[in-house]
Specification:
Strand 10 and strand 11 form a beta hairpin. The protein has about 280 residues and is α/β, with parallel strands linked by helices. The longest helix has 24 residues.
Length: about 280
């Protein structure tokens, strides 16, 4: 077969031939990794199914290195949330989910403590308490993965889950585990980052949401944000402000992931902006 080089117009031309109307388009060329990324929001004016569109695009891009996937924005992603004893991110996600601002299907909440059982159950969601110790860690992770697989979850969210996942679990769910780190990476890693920041007299603190890899807190970064602090504030103030920014950063990272706006490119991510009316339609829905 004759090789046809990748062209930016190939996907659009193929979709146009299939009778699609493109509502929004984002693209980016990663010169460092020699990769081109494109995200399209479209509608088939001929009422074609995803299988039909998939076949048409494969024909249009045959002989190229293009990899594509179609996703229905009305189909909510199934998500498992994992949490330990800090509940601010969990509570924030539950609220956004309840009002429709975060259109996901929460299929389970897993914790290594019982602190948030009532909160979760009161939302009519399954709660699983799986204790984790040095001796039972492998069994505990196997039980966690059983819940994830039986629920058909496509994403695990670590909403301040304070256990380090094994390399095996990270590999199995590569690109499908999102963590919130309570510091503005790569600064102040490890225990009590807000105390470290306070002791150093920083003027900005923040949070980082990233994909989980076998390298602790080194996964591709999806979202970050900061908040200003002053010399007059205490370490406790840092914690309070940090919890707010953690919740916001994690929610934005999840929102980008479930809308397929995040592409992993080497050790980094390409994060496209939201499509027009993406947030407004969810609030109205």
């Amino acid at each position: 077969m004759e090789y046809r080089p990748i062209t930016r117009s190939a996907p659009a031309a193929g979709l146009a031939k299939a009778g699609c109307n493109i509502h929004d388009s984002s693209q980016f060329t990663d010169l460092q990794n020699d990769r081109f990324f494109m995200r399209l929001s479209l509608m088939s004016e001929q009422g074609k199914s995803r299988d039909d569109l998939d076949r048409d695009l494969r024909e249009a891009t045959e002989g190229t290195d293009i990899v594509h996937a179609f996703h229905d924005p009305c189909q909510k992603m199934k998500v498992v949330i994992m949490v330990s004893r800090f509940g601010h991110c969990l509570n924030d996600l539950l609220y956004r989910w309840r009002i429709g601002a975060l259109p996901i299907d929460i299929v389970a909440v897993i914790s290594n403590h019982m602190d948030y059982q009532k909160v979760v159950v009161n939302h009519d969601l399954p709660f699983h308490c799986i204790k984790v110790t040095k001796d039972n860690k492998a069994r505990a992770e196997a039980e966690q993965m059983r819940i994830v697989q039986e629920a058909g979850a496509e994403l695990i969210v670590l909403a301040r889950y304070m256990q380090v996942l094994s390399d095996e679990m990270c590999r199995k769910m590569s690109g499908r585990i999102i963590n919130i780190h309570h510091s503005f990476l790569p600064s102040f890693k490890g225990a009590n980052p807000y105390r470290q920041a306070f002791d150093r007299g920083v003027k900005l603190i923040g949070a980082t949401s990233h994909y989980v890899t076998a390298d602790l807190d080194e996964g591709p970064i999806i979202e970050q944000d900061t908040v200003r602090v002053t010399h007059a504030q205490s370490a406790g103030d840092y914690v309070s402000l940090g919890r707010d920014v953690e919740s916001q950063v994690l929610a934005r990272a999840i929102h980008a992931h479930i809308h397929r706006r995040v592409f992993i490119s080497g050790d980094k991510t390409v994060v496209f902006p939201a499509s027009p009316n993406e947030y407004a339609s969810e609030r109205m829905g």
